[in-house]
Amino acid sequence: MRILIGKDYEEISKKAALMVAAQVMLKPNSVLGLATGSTPLGLYRELIAMYQRGELDFSAVRTINLDEYYPLAPDDPQSYHYFMNDHLFKQINVKPENIHLPKGNADAVKAECDAYETMISQVGGIDLQVLGIGVNGHIGFNEPHPFLHAQTHLVDLTAETIQVNSRFFASAEEVPRQAVTMGMGTILKARRILLIASGRSKAEAIKKTVNGLVTTECPSSFLQTHPAVTLVLDQEAAALL
Ligand code: PGA
Question: Total domain count for the chain?
């Protein structure tokens, strides 16, 4: 595991953006695994700025997102489809047909999950997976649990995640109780992984990610088993290392 520590959120967003940019420059048709949440917003702003300056071209890039709330429709303003379109896709030249997120309102969820796995294989697998991390060590929506699913699946969100994510909603009651997420195996199959964490609230999870036992009770600890993980942390997130 490589650990890069920056002084603040702005600095780590720039570092992360340079890594994603390098990936796209080296392989213009890269498959980028993307994440939602507050953490990658700085990264996305930097990528948009590079695109606007003519430094980056996303015309051949394929994107695959980690997760989507169930049962939200893609045009729901609280959906991750909407979030990604708003904060990244509509501001760069990625082609709509190259954008992939799990459908949150599929009639047959299991079939949707299986199709998502097949699609990831068909595009050749994920070259670089961007991850945030939950305060409870979740990655994607793989929540702490006695067992984890390897493949894309429907998951019950923990009370803690519902509480933490309620800041994006009018109230905690409005936060969906379930989500469709890539599984731990799906994430670990990515060729490279870039996890970004900012703020003191993430320090405990980062400590367990780096130094803890590998356990399903802290899903991010499985990153210790992957050969090419880079953590980009601000000083607060790295405070317990
Ligand atoms: P955050 O979420 O970036 O909004 O902190 C990260 C996550 O829950 O994975």
Answer: 1
Q: Does any domain span residue 166?
A: yes
Mean pLDDT of the chain: 98
Q: How crowded is the C-beta side of 83, counted as CA atoms within 13 Å?
A: 21
Q: What are the tens digits of pLDDT across the range 46-79?
A: 999 999 999 999 999 999 999 999 999 999 999 9
Domain contains 63: yes
Q: Domain with 96 in it: what CATH number?
A: 3.40.50.1360
For residue 161, how far is its CA from the centre of ligand 1 (angstroms)? 9
pLDDT-derived band at 26 (thresholds 50, 70, 90) equals: very high
What average pLDDT does the segment 99-113 reach?
Answer: 97
Question: What range does the domain containing 163 cover?
Answer: 2-128+139-195+220-234
Q: Give the pLDDT confidence score for residue 146 in this predicted structure.
A: 98
CB-ligand 1 contact for 163 (6 Å cutoff):
no
Query: Do 240 and 204 meet the contact criterion of CB atoms below 8 Å apart?
Result: yes
Going by alpha carbons, the residue nearest to atom 2 of ligand 1 is 37
Positions marked catalytic:
67, 136, 138, 143
Instruction: Write a three-state SS string for 59-118.
Output: CCCEEEECEEEECCCCCCCCCHHHHHHHHCHHHCCCCHHHEECCCCCCCCHHHHHHHHHH
Which ligand 1 atom minimizes the distance to the CA of 140?
9
Q: Is the pTM higher than 0.85?
A: yes
Question: Is the beta carbon of 37 within 6 A of some atom in ligand 1?
Answer: yes
Please tell me if the CB atom of residue 42 comes closer than 6 angstroms to any atom of ligand 1: no
